[in-house]
Amino acid sequence: MTQSNGGARPRLDRTAIAVENLTKLFPKPGRDGAFTVLEGISITVEEGAFVSIVGPSGCGKSTLLNVIAGIETSDGGSVRLAPRAARANAEPRIGYVFQSPRLLNWLTVEDNIRFVLEAQNVPRSSWPELVRRNLALVGLAGQERNYPLNLSGGMQQRVAIARALAIEPDILLMDEPFSHLDAITARKMRFDLMEILARAKPTILFVTHDLAEAVFLSDRIYMMTTRPARIFKRVSIDLPRPRQPEDDRIFELEKTLMRDFFSVVEAGA
Amino acid sequence: MREARRVTRLLPPGAVTLVVGLVVWQVVSLFFLPVFLPGPEVLVERMVEIYRAPSAFGVVGVTLARILEGFALAMVVGTGLGLAMGLKRDVEIFFDSWIMVLLTFPAVCWAFLSVLWFGLSNAAPVLTIFLIVLPFVVMNIWEGTKAVEKGLVEMARVYKADRSLMLRKVLIPQLMPYIFSSLRIALSLSWKIALVAEAFGVASGVGQQITYWFQQTRVDMMLAWGVSFMIFMVLLDLLVFRVWARRSFAWRRQFAS
C-alpha cells in the first residue's frame, strides 16, 4: 500500500531501470539482412523518477518500451529492472499505458481492472479496495459497472491508467498516452497525471514526441534521433513542482531543446 | 395503394412469400396423388398422425441424440484445433493440408466407410457427422483467430496473464462471433448429414423412417417426417442459439444505435 502523504517525490538514488547499450534489429521486409532500429541505447531511471524519451514518430520509442516490458527481444545490450525498495526481493511489477486504451470492451470498467489484478495474482480480498481507490484517483468513481465503449476517449485512457496503477506498479511505462486525445483533454490529463503520481509514486518511463509535454512532466529527458534511434542528449529538468503548463520557463526549455534537436538532425542529414 | 401498404406493414416481412408459396403448392398438389405430391393440408394431417403415436418422439430423440453427439464433438475438437492453428505456426503448417483433405473428401464415402468400420451402431452416424462438420468449424475458428486484435494480446502479456486468463478474457470473447456462426453452420450441417447417415446404415431414427417410406413410395409420409424434423431443428436454432448469442453480445448491442 502506498502512503499518500503528498509533497515531494522521493530522493532519486536507487536505480529502477538500467538499460545498457541496447540494440534491436528488424528483418528487412522480403529480403535477407536487417536494419537497426535501436542502436546502443543506454538509459537510467532512478526509483520514483519521471523520465521521458522524446523523439520523432516512428523512431523506435515504442519498440524500446516493449523491449523493456519484456514483450519484445533485443539483439544486444541489457535491461535490468528493480522493484521498489519496499519489496526488494520480488519480481518488479510493470504497468503499461499504451497509445490507445487497449481495454477489453466486453468487460465492465471494474472487470478490466480485475483482469490485471488476476493476471498479477493479487489476492482477491484486496480487489474491491484497489478498484475503488484507483478509479477514484483517475476521477472515474461511479463508472465501475459501465462498459468502455460508453466512455469518451479521454475517459477510456483514464481507465487504462487506473488499470496500470491498480497493480501498484514498481515501474510504469507510458507510450504517448495522450497523443490520441484533443489538445484540451490532453492538457487536463497531463495535469491530473501529475496529481495522481504525487500520490501513487511509481517510477515512470514516458515516451512522447511532444517536447512541451515532456518538459512539463519530467525530471529528466532523453532525446532520440531516428533511423537508427540513438540517444543524443540527456537533460535534467529542475523546475520546481507543482508546475504550470503555461509556465514561461517550460516554453524556454522547449525552444532550446527543439533547436538542439534540429541542429543534430541537420548535421546528420 | 395506401391501404395495401398498410397491410404489408402489418404483416411480418416474409409472410407474403410464405403465403404465396403455400397457395402455389396447394394448387399444384391438386393435380397429383397425395402419395406423389401432398399439399400442405395433407402434410399437416400426416404429421399429426405421426406424432399422435408417442413412439414417434422416441424416433426423433434417437436422431437428435446422434446429432448432438456428433455436433458437440465437432465443435469442441474443431474450436480447439482452430485456435491452436491460429495461434501456433507449426500446428497450422501440420494441419493445413489435412483440413483441406477433410473438406473435399466426398460425404457419401464417409457415410459408407463409417458403416463398414462401425457397423449398424450409434457410432457410425456420429462419426459421419463429426468428420463432415469438423473442417467447417476449424476453418471458421482459424479465420477468427487471425482477426484477433494483437494489441490486446500484447496488453495481456505485459500484465503477465496466464494461458487460461488469456483464453477466457481476451481470445474467446473476440472469437464469439465466429464460434456462434460455427455453431449454426455445424447444427444445420449435422442434421442433414444425420438423416443421410441413418438412411445408409442404422435401423432407427428419422432417417430410417424416411428410407422406409421411400421404399413404400409414400412421398407424403417421407415429407411429413422430413418437414417435422426440420421444424424441430429450426426451433432449436431460434430458441437456444439466437437467445444465447443475443446475451453474449449484450455489451456490443448497447452501442449499436
Can you offer a commentary on this structure?
- The complex is a heterodimer of chains A (269) and B (257).
- With 269 residues, chain A is of the alpha/beta class.
- Chain A has a domain at 12-89 and 208-269: Rossmann fold, CATH 3.40.50.
- Helices cover 34% and strands 24% of the residues of chain A.
- Chain A has helices at 61-69, 109-119, 127-137, 153-166, 183-200, 211-217, 248-268; strands at residues 15-27, 34-46, 50-54, 76-81, 94-97, 171-175, 203-208, 220-225, 230-236.
- In chain A, the strands form two sheets. In chain A, strands 5-6-7-3-8-9 form a six-stranded mixed sheet, sandwiched between helices. Chain A has a three-stranded antiparallel sheet with strand order 2-1-4, with helices on one face.
- In chain A, a hairpin with a 6-residue loop joins β1 and β2 (34-46).
- In chain A, α2 packs parallel to α4 (153-166) and α6 (211-217) packs across α7.
- The longest helix of chain A has 21 residues, at 248-268.
- Chain A starts with 14 loop residues before the first strand and ends with a helix.
- Residues 1-8 of chain A have low confidence and may be disordered.
- With 257 residues, chain B is an all-alpha fold.
- Chain B has a single domain, classed as MetI-like (MetI-like fold).
- Chain B contains twelve helices and no strands.
- In chain B, α4 (55-87) packs parallel to α7 (123-146), α4 (55-87) packs across α9 (163-201) and α4 (55-87) packs across α10.
- The mean pLDDT of chain B is 86.
What is the chain-wise order of helices and strands of chain B? HHHHHHHHHHHH
Q: Stretches of chain B where pLDDT falls below 50 for ≥5 residues?
A: none
If you average the pLDDT of chain A, what whole number results?
Answer: 87
Q: Which percent range fits the helix content of chain B? A: over 70%
Task: Count every helix of chain A, treating DSSP H or I runs of 4 or more residues as helices.
Answer: 7
